[in-house]
Amino acid sequence: MIPALIAAAAAGGALAAGASACLIGARVLFNRVIPRQKEVRVDVSEMADGEKWEEYIKIIHRERDKLLQRKSEQVTITTRDGLTLHGDYFPSENPSRRTAILVHGYTSCGMNDCPAMAEYFLEKGWNALIVDQRSHGKSEGDYVGFGILDRFDCLKWIDYVGELSNGEAEIVLYGVSMGAATVLMASGLDNFPKSVKAIIADCAFTSPYEVFKHILKRDYHLPPHPIMDINDGLCRKKAGYGFRECSTIDAVKKGVCPILFIHGKEDKFVPTYMSEENYRACTGEKEILLMENAGHAASIYENAELYKEKVTEFLEKYFV
Fold first, then answer.
1. Considering only CA atoms, which of 216, 242, 244, 230 is closest in space to residue 27?
2. pLDDT tens, residue by residue, 197-229
3. 148 exposure class (CB count in 10 Å sphere: 0-12, 13-18, 19+)
4. Cβ atoms of 23 and 230 closer than 8 Å
5. What is the pLDDT of residues 221-280, one digit of tens each?
6. For the chain, how far is it from start to end, CA to CA, in angstroms?
7. Sheet holding 196-202, edge to edge
């Protein structure tokens, strides 16, 4: 995950003094985190301990194999800046207006992070649309959006689902990690569609700036200044956005949609307090589930029964 990628940048700031060292560190951080990654990079220690992760992988493979036996269609949208994004659409066995849009985390893809929950929704009689965020999976893009760019892409996916149902769609947004930040940030946009009846945000960070700041302090005992300031400028210049341009906290203050926040209590990457901050800031209808013994993005695998039970109770309030 990202902490392992930041090591070189942090070392650049810690081992040398002066502006040049900070500039080098910031450039390393940018180049190893923001551009599209050629491979999925996962630091298992950030997700869960090794033995647990071996079991989680088995669950992921099993759920994906089940999903791939279902009827599906590869679909695309075009973003406002001209990128083609990919999705896998799984229609319910019987026609339904209800669709779950599922959004994955950093350096992953939809078919890695979302099969278990897609299966859950399909078994409930919903349609499921698993998307690849920009610069991930089969989607185009040179730079990772960290939710800030992806929030606009999310609206495009919502519009796509709306067109499939002739404007009668009832939608839930489900996101994990960066995907959770994406769906929360999307809810703060002025034109957020009323067709979205609820949001499920699993281990969302509040902003890319805050999560990078947390890692620099925790792992390398470094302040965010000036490395993050320099890196923010690089990101604005090359990727077209700043790390503090948008936050989930500002988005959920608008309270436009009921939200279920989920977070593992043992999350070592995105600290649990970020979901608690989101929960406190949210002015709309809200619930929170803090999962015992779960690491980052691992809550559904640690206790699937409790996870799905909570999701079901939440959805039954808004999808009658």
1. 230
2. 999 999 999 999 999 998 888 877 888 888 899
3. buried
4. yes
5. 888 888 899 999 999 999 999 999 999 999 999 999 999 999 999 998 999 999 999 999
6. 39
7. 73-78, 84-90, 127-131, 98-103, 170-176, 196-202, 259-264, 286-291
DSSP codes joined into one string, 40-91:
----HHHHS-HHHHHHHHHHHHHHHHHHHTS--EEEEEE-TTS-EEEEEEE-
Q: Kind and range of the H or E element at 131?
A: strand 127-131
Region of residue 166 (phi > 0: left; psi between -120 and 50: alpha; otherwise: beta) = left
* Bridge partners, 288 (sequence order): 261
Structural domains of the chain, ranges and CATH numbers in brackets: 1-33+208-244 (no CATH), 47-207+246-316 (3.40.50.1820)
Contacts of 268 (CB under 8 A, 6+ apart): 45, 46, 295, 296
Nearest by Cα to 41 from 85, 79, 10, 7: 7
% of the chain surpassing 90 pLDDT = 78
Residues in the chain: 320
What does residue 190 show for φ and ψ, rounded to 5 degrees? -65, -30
